[in-house]
Write a structure and sequence with these properties.
single chain; alpha+beta; five-stranded mixed beta sheet; 10 helices; 5 strands; 55% helix
Length: 204
Amino acid sequence: MKQKIPFSQVSQANGTKAPQLPKYSSSVINSASGYAHATDPKNVGMVSQEIQEFCNDTTTEHNLEDWKTWHLKHHENGAGINRAIDQAWEKFQTMRESLNAVTRENVAEWMEDFVYNKTYDGLMVQKAVIKAIADKIGVCWRLANAQEEHQGIDGFINNKPVQIKADSYKQTGKKHNETTTCPVVFYHKENKSIIFDYEENWFK
């Protein structure tokens, strides 16, 4: 039998209660905490692991206050969480000052970047990768024309055909029984970079 319960029911069963914060502020505080690294282990520990240790240490039935007491005891009697609060608050104030300076023009720039630039860049990774490889080994390059694209070619490096595919294609391509007739450069996104692997002799 499959059953679904809301998260509110989990909180109700555990006796926890979400804080009553001003509208929209929770996500901003969360961002401020993240930017400040306020909840790093040096401040609050590895809570996802420590909650398990707490449960293992407690032989009798426990509650939320028991968990708080256990955590405080293991983290400088609250000094760690107070550091986290101070760091998050300091970053929050900095963010608030910056947000107060935002204009409608800034919002327009963000929206156009999201709708146009990021979408275009996301679809045109192939061009950037092909150009980067060609520039690195000092040869010519071009994108494939419509007829060549129909053959599964994304472009040419030193007049050699190449495909540029995301790492996920390794699985999706197999599912669709797709075959390749030229070298494939696989890439993945990591933080704010595109990482890809290739062999220079493919294009000699």
